[in-house]
# Entry
Amino acid sequence: MTENAADFKARLIRRAGLSEAAVDAAWPEWWSDAAEASPSANAELRFTLARKLGLDPRSLMGKGQPKFIWDDSARFKGFSGDPSGERPILSSFGMALCRMLLGAVPDAIPVEPISALRLRKSILSGRQDIGLLELLSTAWAMGIPVIHLRVYPLTAKRMSAMSVRLGERFAILVARDAMYPAPVAFHVAHELGHIFLGHLQDGHSIVDLESIDELSSGADPEEQAADAYALELLTGRPSPEVVVEGPGAGARQLANEAIRVGQIEHIEPGTLAMVYGHATKAWPTAMASLRHIYGQPMDAWRVINQVALRQLDLSQLNDESEAFVRAVMGATHG
Ligand SMILES: [Zn+2]
# Structure
């Protein structure tokens, strides 16, 4: 085959369309210049890259066009057309990664459908409200891994979140980051909606592309249903309202009202600010209120991946898969 490693890497980036970060994350630690001369090391390099990135290994052996395994198993929401061939890349990367994640969550019980209100009730027993941390611990308790992607398979990031089904197991990949928990909590709740409403067929995924401030479910009934599920889970109502007195309410005023109502209604105040932003389209005010609600910013991705690292049993994976999962989560080895 005699394609050197540098040319092979260039082929994955230029012809397959993968980001350099994704190829680097999947590149095995054992690779060295000395391995270049070994045909078996070259074959193993291609096999390991194929496994991690969801590529057909045979398509990596020659010098031809790399082929993704999951070509059309993903349904894309808020996405029209695919001029740059992003769909197979995202769905294959997501499926391959979720297979590894599920391997690190052994002995999980099969996921049963559950209504938003029943799930809300069970989460709220003993808790004041449902925020990002409560959603994460609920998902993990049900054997559904949730991680934040620090390595994205495409150069341009357009995905908010993705959910994947393999057999009776599910996983959620979050791509959109935020400085406060509420916007990301909504995406996680929305993906749980897709999962618990039975939108996913075995071996399929749903990729959500729009961000929360352009949330416009449009005519897609599954998107509307997942949004309603998320809102009902987080607030108790499929279409809640937040009213702030007077026109042109300020961020601090909104924050105070969200905290007051949240306390009474068992709704995380940041979620109420998002609901207000959605209803009024006053997104700058809604986003600015988060600073008053939470006190200080934090990276939502760190929260998600810290929880994930505590929950994943990475010893279930081989060293190569473990290194890849850690790299994708922005977690250095140790
Ligand atoms: Zn969706």
